[in-house]
Amino acid sequence: MSQTAEKILDHTLLFGEPEYKEMFARKAPGEGMPPKERVQQVDDWTRTWEYRERNFAREALTVNPAKACQPLGAVFAAAGFERTLSFVHGSQGCVAYYRSHLSRHFKEPCSAVSSSMTEDAAVFGGLNNMVDGLGNAHRLYAPKMIAVSTTCMAEVIGDDLQSFIQTAKSKGTIPNDLDVPFAHTPAFVGSHVVGYDNMMKGILSHLWTDKQRVEDDRLNIIPGFDGFAVANNRELQRMMDLMGVSCTIVSDVADQFDTPANGEYQMYSGGTTLDAAKAALNAKATLSMQEYCTTKTLEYAASLGHAVGSSHYPMGVGATDDLLMKVSELTGKAIPSKLEVERGRLVDAMADSQGWLHGKTYGIFGDPDFVFGMARFILETGGEPRHCLSTNANKGWEEKMGALFASSPFGNKCKAWAGKDLWHMRSLLATEPVDLIVGSSYGKYLERDLNVPLVRLAFPIFDRHHHHRFPTWGYQGGLRVLVAILDKILEKLDSDALSDRGGGRSYDLTR
Ligand code: SF4
User: Fold this and answer.
1) How far apart are CA 148 and CA 134, in angstroms?
2) Which residues of 121-130 are buried (b: 16+ CB within 10 A; e: fewer)?
3) Alpha-carbon distance 139 to 227, whole Å?
4) Using CA positions, which residue lies closest to atom 5 of ligand 1?
C-alpha cells in the first residue's frame, strides 16, 4: 500500500499511486461513460456560439448559481452584534451549511443553532421546537440576544415567528426582557444579500421601535455581507478615526470571525454592543457600504429621519473618493492629508504597472455590489470588465452597470448579466475569452476548464487561506486588490513565456 502510518499521503497524491490508478481503471467500464472522442465532441460543442444561445435560452434550470440562500445572510448579519446567537427555525442540515460555509471561509468556528424541525414539525408546525429550542439555547449558550431567522421548511408551512417568540416568553422558557429580534428569510426567493437586509432591519427595528430619537452627530456604517469584513471593517474604522468621525459600525463581524488562539474558545467575540446598536437610532446619518444588501434597512432608517447614503463596495480610487466625500459632507469633517497621501500611493502604483494592466479583459462574478465595485476599479486601471455576472442582481443593476460602462472609454465592449449562473459564465468565457476571472473559489472550475487565471476576491474563498485578513476597501485595500490582479497577470506571463508558444525566450527577471 502507498499509504502507511509512516507515510501519510493527502488524497491529492494518494489517488495518483499505482494501485488507485489501477482501481479507477477497473471501475471505469461500470461508470457507463461514452467514448472519449464523443465526450470531447460534446465538450467542444458546448464552447460554441450555438450552444451559448441555447444556454442563455435556458429557463427551468440553474447550474452553479453564484449566490447562497437568505438565512446565510441573516446568520452573518446577526454575528456582528455583541453576544448574539443565531437561532434558525427549520431543519438542522441547513444550519450546518451556514456554519460550515462561514467557517470554511474565515477559518474560524461559527456558532448558530437550529430548532431542528423534522417531519412532525413540518406537519403540525414548529411551535414546540421553537419554544423548547429558544429555552435550551438561552440556558446553554447565555447569549445577550437571540436573532431568529427561518429556513425554507418553516416558511413553506408559514410559521409565525413573532407569535412563537411571544409564546416562548409567556411560557417562561426565555426571559421576558431577552432581546429576540427575528426576520422571515424564505430561502426560495432572494439570496444571502436579501437575508442580510431582512435580519439587519429585523434587529434594528426590534431595538429602535417605540424609542424616542434624539439626533446626535454620529454616523452609522453598515458594511453589508462581505467576505473580507474582518479586515475591511477595521480599515473603515481606521479611515473614520483618521477623519475624526464618531461612527458605529452596525454589525461588525471583525472580531467574531478573527478570534485569537490564546487557549480559550470564545463563542462570542466583539461585535456592535447592544447599547451602541440602540443608540444608533440617534445617529444623524446611516451609510451603507453595499446598497443591494441594505435596501429595506436604509428605507427604514430614512423613515426615522436619518440622512442615508450608500456605496457599491468602496474599492479603488473613485469609490473611496466618493465614500470619504460623502462622510465629509455628512459630518463636516475634512479629509486629512494622511488619506490624501494613501490615495496618491494607490494612483502611483496603478501608474507604475499601467503597461501590464492596460487593455486586460476580465470576467467578474459575485454579489451585485461586489461586481459593481470590482468593475469600477478595473475600468480605473484601464482594463475592460467584459463579462459582469451576478446571479442575485436585478434588471436595475444591469442598467446601473450599463451607465458605469458608458462612463469609461474602456467600457464599450462590456456587458452585465443579472440572474445568470456560472454555467452561463462558462459560455461567455468560451465564446469571448478574457485574460482573467475575478470571483470566489467556485471560479476554479472555470479556471481549469477555460485556462483563464482566477483572482479570488469574493466570498466564499475556501481553497486559499487568510485573504480576508487584508482589506480590499479604501486606498490601502485598493493596493492589495491591485497586487492580487498583477500577480496573476505576471504569473501568466511567465508561464506563457515557458510554453511552446513562448519558446522560453522571454522568461525575464524584470517585468
Ligand atoms: S435553500 Fe432552503 S433547504 Fe437549502 S439550505 Fe437554504 S434554507 Fe435550507
Assistant:
1) 9
2) beeebbbebb
3) 31
4) 94
CA of 94 to the centre of ligand 1 (A): 5
pLDDT (average), residues 291-315: 98
- Which CB contacts under 8 angstroms, 24+ apart, belong to 359-362? 359/383, 359/384, 360/384, 360/435, 360/436, 360/489, 361/385, 361/386, 361/433, 361/434, 361/435, 361/436, 362/386, 362/387, 362/434, 362/435, 362/436, 362/437, 362/438
What does the alpha-carbon distance between residue 1 and residue 278 come to, in Å, rounded to a whole number?
Answer: 62
List, for residues 80-98, the tens digit of each pLDDT value. 999 999 999 999 999 999 9
Residue that the C-alpha cell 444608533 belongs to: 280
Q: What is the enclosing helix (H) or strand (E) of 361? A: strand 361-365
* Ligand 1 pocket, CB under 6 A: 69, 71, 94, 97, 151-152, 187
Angle between helices 229-243 and 474-498 (to 10 degrees): 140
CA distances from 140 to 2, 85, 174, 421 (A): 46, 11, 12, 41
Q: How far apart are CA 408 and CA 495, in angstroms?
A: 31
pLDDT at 79 over 70: yes
Q: How far apart are CA 207 and CA 61, in angstroms?
A: 41
Q: Is the pTM of this model over 0.85?
A: yes
- How does DSSP assign 28-60, residue by residue? GGGGTPPPHHHHHHHHHHTTSHHHHHHHHT--S
Specify the residue with its C-alpha closest to ligand 1, atom 3. Answer: 152
Instruction: Please choose, from the candidates 374, 386, 511, the residue with its C-alpha nearest in 3D space to the C-alpha of residue 455.
Output: 374
Nearest atom within ligand 1 for CA of residue 151: 7
Distance CA 255, CA 237 (A): 13
